[in-house]
Design a protein that fits this description.
Layout lengths: L1 H22 L11 H5 L3 E7 L6 H7 L4 H9 L15 E7 L5 E7 L4 E8 L2 E8 L3 E10 L4 H9 L5 H14 L15 E10 L5 E13 L2 E9 L5 E4 L20 E3 L2 E4 L6 E4 L2 E4 L5 E3 L4 E8 L5 E6 L4 E11 L8 E2 L4 E5 L9 E8 L2 E3 L1 H4 L10 H18 L4 E5 L10
Helix pairs in contact: 3-4, 5-6
Length: 423
């Protein structure tokens, strides 16, 4: 009886899975049919993703193609795609006739730029390649911080961006201000952000973030404006409205926009259970997350340091030393005496030493004294543009800043690179 019940359960699961496969519509309309055709009872549609270690033939078999059909479909790819090199996660849509239950079309979402379509006539499969057109425009988004930057932009951009694009926009904004503000801990309730950026949209409505052209971050009633500017060598950099660079001697955080688990000051030690001065900042992040040095310098310590576990110390100019503790390990070539450059990966988040879980313990010492990173790193080595470069900057700022001041929403269609100062 138990064996019969188990077989019955397996059959019920299989039937449910098959039914779901026949009714589930792909996230992206890859079929080329009209909405009426897609919803018609004479057609069925199923979507799936290629599993790790799985071949395309195996996936098509799971989606109802017999062995001969699946093999013929893959063979028709010719040189368009190497079946042995298709990465896991590839999105595949299968379409067929309800009457015959045979698949007639297979669409492979090779990238955001390209679809490979397989079509069957009788027993013969043919493959064609289609380039996905993307239309670019510019959008203004505004948000008010209540909890964090993610939520501010999520609320402000919900009407014009998909969830993934809203997250990507938050990362872009954090990168713009990484020399001025640690987005993980220095934003407060009531701060606001506005962004002018390029948005690309494909025919199915999927969108993605292009370049940030200008931004404004208001904190405590004062706004830090950022305008994208292209140097003669082709490198992009952000400057404020007075043509001063947003770059500084130090990054404000050793991790790229991560959640902080504790702040500078006194706290109850999570393992020792005693209250003690916590002379630094803890960044909660997954084990193995890259840790970057906040500035150019020389590694003066690389090893185990008591409760800090695996630790790196980097000496910078003007008596500054940055310390990174609880590391899982060090990056290749990072050892005592090695020179490192700002933003370079020097180690990886871990839980060595006295740590309850993976996180980075970060400290700043000035002339040997532990200082609050928030104040110690609040110095800027801003370089101002002069001469012809300043004139060109003022020209582009005169274009993008008025647009940044517009009401939220799409602004206008632009061509690639429009709105940037170039040599």
């Amino acid at each position: 009886m138990k064996r019969l019940a188990r077989r019955t359960a397996i059959v019920m699961v299989a039937v449910a899975a098959a039914a779901a496969a026949l009714t589930y519509l792909p996230k992206i309309d890859l079929s080329g049919h009209t909405p009426a055709e897609r919803l018609g009872l004479d057609r069925w549609h199923a979507s799936d993703t290629l599993a790790l270690g799985e071949s395309l033939v195996e996936l098509l078999g799971r989606r109802g193609l017999d062995a001969a059909d699946a093999a013929a479909a893959v063979q028709s790819l010719g040189g368009l795609i190497d079946d042995r090199r298709i990465p896991a996660g590839l999105e595949v849509a299968v379409h067929g006739d309800t009457s015959s239950q045979r698949a007639t079309d297979v669409d492979l979402m090779v990238s955001d730029e390209k679809i490979v379509r397989l079509h069957r006539e009788g027993d013969v499969w043919t493959a064609t390649e289609e380039v996905i057109p993307w239309v670019m425009d510019t959008v203004v988004v505004r948000g008010v911080v209540r909890t964090n930057l993610y939520d501010a932009l999520d609320a402000g951009a919900g009407e014009w961006l998909s969830k993934g694009a809203r997250i990507a926009l938050a990362w872009e904004v954090a990168d713009v201000y990484e020399y001025r503000v640690d987005m993980s801990r220095e934003l407060q309730d009531g701060d606001s952000v506005r962004v002018l950026f390029e948005r690309e949209t494909n025919p199915s409505g999927t969108n993605r973030i292009g370049k940030v052209l200008a931004a404004g971050l208001e904190r405590g009633g004062q706004e830090i404006t950022a305008v994208r500017f292209i140097h003669p060598d082709g490198k992009a950099e952000f400057f404020d409205e007075k043509a001063k660079s947003l770059r500084a001697s130090f990054l404000r955080a050793p991790l790229s926009f991560r959640r902080i688990s504790s702040v500078f000051g006194r706290r109850k030690h999570p393992i020792l259970g005693t209250w003690r001065r916590h002379a630094g900042t803890d960044y909660a992040a997954a084990s193995g997350t890259p840790v970057r040095t906040i500035g150019d310098g020389v590694v003066v310590f690389a090893g185990v340091k008591g409760g800090y576990g695996n630790t790196l110390e980097v000496r910078h100019r003007n008596g500054f030393v940055s310390r990174y503790g609880h590391l899982k390990g060090f990056a290749r070539g990072v050892r005592r005496g090695a020179s490192v450059t700002q933003g370079e990966t020097i180690g990886y988040v871990g839980a060595t030493g006295l740590a309850t879980g993976p996180h980075l313990h970060f400290e700043v010492l000035v002339n040997g004294v532990q200082r609050d990173p928030r104040t110690a790193l609040r110095q800027s080595a801003a370089v101002a543009l002069t001469g012809k470069e300043k004139v060109r900057f003022e020209s582009v700022a005169g274009v993008v800043l008025p647009e940044l001041g517009r009401a939220p929403g799409p602004v206008r269609a632009v061509g690639q690179g429009e709105g940037e100062a170039k040599p």
